[in-house]
């Protein structure tokens, strides 16, 4: 029996009626015993996909670990199941042309799917794929599938010259700020209007990182999550930027 791999969560659901998103949620970093974030740095200590919301529960973490081990330990069966899910996404996209049907393959990972199986994109042309990556090489690639968009995640190891090059190429870069984010208490503070002279757009309004929604050559601002202590530690580590 096929294993359903694409799921949703509160973060992906923020698209409302316009955007329908499913994601592939692996256990981040090496929590499964397998490394899924080869370019990671200090972000692993404050990963919102492991330390906030429902992901702190044993059941959600256990499911993420099982998916990750399935990918590494039975690759052929895993890919067959993933394609089966994507066949359904393609059919849904064709039947609902007024909805932006998306898939985020790296909900909590940084795997180069365009190298592992390019047919993930070519076989499902009406599905929009997007991800974040900490790999400058991936973000700068001119050979990405037309329906796959990558946003570079700025971190403590980033070279600001490379970041500026990406922005000049009209690629988008995500920056995490220490801006307060407490939606349960109706306390979500505004992000800075600019960072290093570049326009900042609010990346917390919806999860889909698509150029026709975000624009091109912009900073995607994200608020640090996972609790006050983790945000403070991430600032000290250089991953989260201090709001001026």
Structure description:
This protein has 244 residues and is of the alpha/beta class. Helices cover 32% and strands 19% of the residues. It is built from nine helices and eleven strands. The protein has a nine-stranded mixed sheet with strand order 1-2-3-4-5-6-11-10-9. A two-stranded antiparallel ribbon has the order 7-8.
List the defining traits of the structure above:
single chain, 244 residues, alpha/beta, two-stranded antiparallel ribbon, 9 helices, 11 strands
List the helices and strands and how they pair.
Layout: E1 6-7, E2 19-24, H1 48-51, H2 58-73, H3 75-95, E3 100-104, H4 113-116, H5 119-122, E4 128-133, H6 136-140, E5 148-153, H7 160-168, E6 173-177, E7 181-182, E8 187-188, E9 194-195, E10 198-202, H8 211-214, E11 219-223, H9 228-237
Parallel strand pairs: 2-3, 3-4, 4-5, 5-6, 6-11, 10-11
Antiparallel strand pairs: 1-2, 7-8, 9-10
Helix pairs in contact: 2-3
Q: What's the quick description here?
A:
The protein has 244 residues and is α/β, with parallel strands linked by helices. The chain has helices at 48-51, 58-73, 75-95, 113-116, 119-122, 136-140, 160-168, 211-214, 228-237; strands spanning 6-7, 19-24, 100-104, 128-133, 148-153, 173-177, 181-182, 187-188, 194-195, 198-202, 219-223.
């Amino acid at each position: 029996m096929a294993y359903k791999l694409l799921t949703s969560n509160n973060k992906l659901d923020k698209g409302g009626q316009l955007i329908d998103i499913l994601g592939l949620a692996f256990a981040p970093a090496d929590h499964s015993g397998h490394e899924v974030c080869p370019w990671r740095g200090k972000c692993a200590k404050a990963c919102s996909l492991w330390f906030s919301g429902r992901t702190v529960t044993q059941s959600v973490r256990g499911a993420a670990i099982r998916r990750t081990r399935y990918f590494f330990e039975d690759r052929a069966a895993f890919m067959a199941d993933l394609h089966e899910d994507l066949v359904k996404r393609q059919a849904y996209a064709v039947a609902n042309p007024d909805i932006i049907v998306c898939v985020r393959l790296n909900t909590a990972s940084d795997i180069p799917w365009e190298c592992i199986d390019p047919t993930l994109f070519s076989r499902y042309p009406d599905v929009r794929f997007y991800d974040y990556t900490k790999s400058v090489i991936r973000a700068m690639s001119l050979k990405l599938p037309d329906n796959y968009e990558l946003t570079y995640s700025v971190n403590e190891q980033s070279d600001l010259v490379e970041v500026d090059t990406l922005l000049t190429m009209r690629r988008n870069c995500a920056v995490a700020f220490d801006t307060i984010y407490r939606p349960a208490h109706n306390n979500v503070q505004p992000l800075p209007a600019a960072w290093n002279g570049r326009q900042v757009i609010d990346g917390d309004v919806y999860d889909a990182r698509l150029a026709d929604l975000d624009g091109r050559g912009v900073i995607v601002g994200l608020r640090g999550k996972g609790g006050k202590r983790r945000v403070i530690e991430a600032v000290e580590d250089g991953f989260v930027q201090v709001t001026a």
